[in-house]
Specification:
157 residues; alpha/beta; Rossmann fold; globular
Length: 157
């Protein structure tokens, strides 16, 4: 059966995507593939000290499996069949590659809603996935989760 791919980074703004993916998997009786992609973040043209890069890599190697297992645990509690995957690389490429390899019925991903300036500086994984994916993509907006934490969010976007 074709899975639903949930791509999450474990951030609070990814929470609506986790919830939506579990709901969709429950409603459609589809398996859920929970994945997280990590890479060493931009380090300023390669001038970061090597110990810093090694520390970041070690943290991500440890953190990524915990992110996917936390979401998988919730999905299993809802009665969903779950697999997990952790990849290293450029998130857009890896998410789309996994979805294509598994012939996913859809991808569910969250959006930080950083706005135009921050998206240009940091990139938008959700926008990249929408443009590159071979299957439908649901982008679960973080508005509701972020607005509850900080009411200014709705006026800043």
């Amino acid at each position: 059966m074709r899975p639903i791919v949930l791509a999450t980074d474990g951030s609070p703004s990814a929470e609506p995507a986790v919830q939506r993916a579990i709901e969709l998997a429950t409603e459609t009786h589809a398996p859920l593939l929970v994945m997280s992609v990590w890479d060493i973040p931009y380090t300023g043209l390669g001038y970061a000290p090597l110990p810093l890069v090694i520390d970041v890599q070690a943290e991500m190697v440890e953190r990524a499996p915990k992110i996917v297992e936390a979401a998988a645990l919730r999905a299993r509690a809802a009665g969903v069949t779950v697999e997990t995957a952790v990849r290293r690389g450029f998130p857009v490429d890896e998410i789309c590659r996994v979805a294509e390899e598994r012939n996913a019925r859809m991808i569910v991903i969250g959006s930080h809603h950083w706005g135009r300036v921050r998206s240009v500086l940091h990139g938008s994984v959700s926008q990249g996935v929408v443009q590159a994916a071979h299957c439908p993509v649901i982008v679960a907006p973080a508005f509701e989760a972020e607005a509850k934490a900080d009411p200014r969010v709705l006026t800043e976007v």
